[in-house]
C-alpha cells in the first residue's frame, strides 16, 4: 500500500535527507539521485517541491534562519535567566549549527550566491534587533542599562556583527579579531549606558565559541 504523506512532511523529509548528505558528502559531492534514494521517492516527486539541488540548499538556509530566530526569541522570553546571561545565550544561539553548517556557509559565501547571502543578512538585521531590544528594555527597568534607544542600539550592534565579523567580509588575524571584539564590547557598553566591563562576559563567550 502506497503511503501518502502531507506536503509539508514530505518537504521536510527531503530537506532532512539533503542536510545529512551535504554534511557527509559535501554539497558538490551530493547528487539529486543520492537524495532520491535516501528519501525513497521518485524524481518527479522531488521536482514537485524543488527544481534543483540549489533550491534545496536555499530552502535549508531559510529553515536554519527561521529556527535560529525562533530559538533566540524563546531564550529572550525566559525571564528566569538573568539579563546579561540571556544576551549571551541569544547571541550564541544565532550561530548556524547542524550537520551541514559548513556546507551552508560555503554555499552562502560563493560569489554567485550573493543575493542569498544578502537575504540571510536581511533576516538577521531585521529579525534579531527586536529580540535583543526587549532584553535591553528589561535591563533599563532593572537599572543595568540606560539608553533611550534600545532598538536602534541593537540594530547597530547586529549590523556590525553581520559585516565586520563575517569571515569573508573583513579578513583579519585572530589578534585583530580579538581587538575588534574588545572595541565592540567597549562601545556597546557606552551605547547602552552600561557600567564598564558589564558586557565583558559577552566577549568571553564569543572568544570561547571561536576557539571551540
Question: Would you summarize the structure shown here?
Answer:
The chain has two domains: 1-51, Homeodomain-like (Arc Repressor Mutant, subunit A, Orthogonal Bundle); 53-211, Tetracycline Repressor, domain 2.
Describe what this molecule looks like in 3D:
The protein has 2 domains: 1-51, Orthogonal Bundle (Arc Repressor Mutant, subunit A); 53-211, Orthogonal Bundle (Tetracycline Repressor, domain 2), CATH 1.10.357.10. The protein contains 10 helices and no strands. The protein has helices at residues 7-25, 32-39, 43-49, 53-76, 83-93, 101-108, 114-141, 150-161, 174-192, 200-211. The model has no long low-confidence stretch (mean pLDDT 83).
The rounded Rg comes to 20 Å
Specify the number of helices: 10
CATH topology grouping of the largest domain: Tetracycline Repressor, domain 2
Mind describing the biggest β-sheet? none
Helix content: 55-70%
Spatial gap, N to C terminus: 49 Å
The unreliable regions are none
Number of strands: 0
Count structural domains: 2
Order of helices and strands: HHHHHHHHHH
Please render the helix and strand layout as text.
Layout: H1 7-25, H2 32-39, H3 43-49, H4 53-76, H5 83-93, H6 101-108, H7 114-141, H8 150-161, H9 174-192, H10 200-211
Helix pairs in contact: 1-2, 1-4, 4-5, 4-7, 5-7, 5-10, 7-8, 9-10
Which terms summarize this structure?
2 domains; Arc Repressor Mutant, subunit A; 212 residues; 10 helices
Amino acid at each position: 500500500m502506497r503511503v501518502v504523506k502531507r506536503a509539508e512532511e514530505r518537504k521536510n523529509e527531503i530537506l532532512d535527507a539533503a542536510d545529512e548528505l551535504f554534511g557527509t558528502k559535501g554539497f558538490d559531492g551530493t547528487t539529486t539521485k543520492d537524495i532520491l534514494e535516501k528519501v525513497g521517492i521518485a524524481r518527479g516527486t522531488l521536482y514537485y517541491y524543488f527544481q534543483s539541488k540549489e533550491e534545496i540548499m536555499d530552502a535549508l538556509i531559510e529553515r536554519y534562519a527561521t529556527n535560529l530566530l525562533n530559538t533566540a526569541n524563546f531564550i529572550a522570553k525566559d525571564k528566569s535567566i538573568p539579563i546579561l546571561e540571556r544576551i549571551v545565550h541569544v547571541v550564541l544561539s544565532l550561530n548556524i549549527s547542524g550537520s551541514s553548517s559548513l556546507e551552508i556557509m560555503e554555499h552562502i559565501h560563493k560569489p554567485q550566491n550573493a543575493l542569498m547571502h544578502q537575504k540571510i543578512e536581511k533576516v538577521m538585521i531585521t529579525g534579531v534587533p527586536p529580540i535583543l531590544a526587549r532584553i535591553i528594555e528589561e535591563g533599563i527597568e532593572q537599572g543595568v542599562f540606560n539608553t533611550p534607544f534600545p532598538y536602534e542600539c541593537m540594530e547597530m550592534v547586529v549590523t556590525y556583527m553581520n559585516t565586520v565579523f563575517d569571515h569573508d567580509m573583513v579578513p583579519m588575524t585572530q589578534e585583530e579579531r580579538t581587538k575588534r571584539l574588545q572595541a565592540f564590547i567597549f562601545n556597546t557598553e557606552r551605547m547602552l549606558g552600561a557600567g564598564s566591563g558589564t558586557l565583558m562576559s559577552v566577549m568571553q563567550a564569543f572568544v570561547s565559541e571561536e576557539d571551540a
